[in-house]
Inverse folding.
C-alpha cells in the first residue's frame, strides 16, 4: 500500500516539476515605452515549453519580426501578428525570436525584445543576454545593447527557478524525497 501511495504521489508531482514558465514581458512594467527589454531579458532563462505574456494598453501592439526587421525597427513584413492584450506567445522551438511594437516610433524608443530559447533546463542563453548586437560598423538603435561583450549571466541563486536549481534539479529533489518516503514506509 505504501508503494502505491508513493507511486500516486510521483504521478501527481511530476507534471508540476516540468511546468512551463510564463514570463511576463517587462515584469510589472509590462509591454510599454520606457522599459529596457534587453536588461529584462538578460535576467530570464527562456526554454522550449515556456510562454511569453505581453500585457499592454490599446496604444501598443506586438509583432514578431525577422532579425533584420528587429534591428531596423521595421514592421512592414511581420513574421507573426498577435491579438490585443493580453498576448501569450508559446516558445515551441529553440532559437532567437524577435518582437517589436509596430506603433509609430515605439520600437525606436526601445519597445523591442529578442529572446533566445534553449532546449530546456536552467542554463542561460549562450550569449549571456537576449538582445543581439548590431553588425560591426552599423549604428546601435535604442534598446539594443552596444556591440561590446555582454555582461555575464545573473549569478546562481538569483531567481525563483534558481532557488531549487532549475527544472532538472527540482525533479531530482522530488525523486529523492519520494525514494526516502518509500524506504521509510516500505
Amino acid at each position: 500500500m505504501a508503494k502505491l501511495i508513493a507511486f500516486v504521489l510521483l504521478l501527481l508531482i511530476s507534471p508540476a516539476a516540468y511546468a512551463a514558465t510564463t514570463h511576463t514581458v517587462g515584469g510589472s512594467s509590462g509591454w510599454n515605452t520606457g522599459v529596457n527589454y534587453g536588461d529584462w531579458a538578460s535576467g530570464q532563462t527562456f526554454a522550449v515549453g515556456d510562454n511569453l505574456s505581453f500585457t499592454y494598453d490599446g496604444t501598443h501592439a506586438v509583432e514578431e519580426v525577422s532579425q533584420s526587421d528587429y534591428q531596423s525597427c521595421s514592421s512592414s513584413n511581420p513574421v507573426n501578428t498577435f491579438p490585443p492584450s493580453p498576448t501569450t506567445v508559446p516558445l515551441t522551438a529553440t532559437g532567437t525570436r524577435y518582437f517589436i511594437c509596430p506603433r509609430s516610433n515605439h520600437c525606436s524608443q526601445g519597445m523591442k525584445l529578442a529572446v533566445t530559447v534553449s532546449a530546456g533546463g536552467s542554463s542561460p542563453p549562450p550569449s549571456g543576454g537576449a538582445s543581439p548586437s548590431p553588425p560591426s560598423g552599423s549604428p546601435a538603435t535604442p534598446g539594443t545593447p552596444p556591440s561590446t561583450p555582454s555582461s555575464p549571466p545573473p549569478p546562481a541563486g538569483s531567481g525563483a527557478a534558481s532557488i531549487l536549481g532549475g527544472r532538472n534539479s527540482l525533479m531530482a529533489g522530488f525523486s529523492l524525497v519520494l525514494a526516502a518516503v518509500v524506504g521509510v514506509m516500505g
About this structure: The first strand starts at residue 22 and ends at 24. The beta strands are 22-24, 46-47, 51-54, 63-65, 80-81, 87-90, 95-100, 112-118. The helical segments are 2-17, 37-42, 67-72, 160-163, 166-185. Residues 96 and 116 are 4 Å apart (CA to CA).
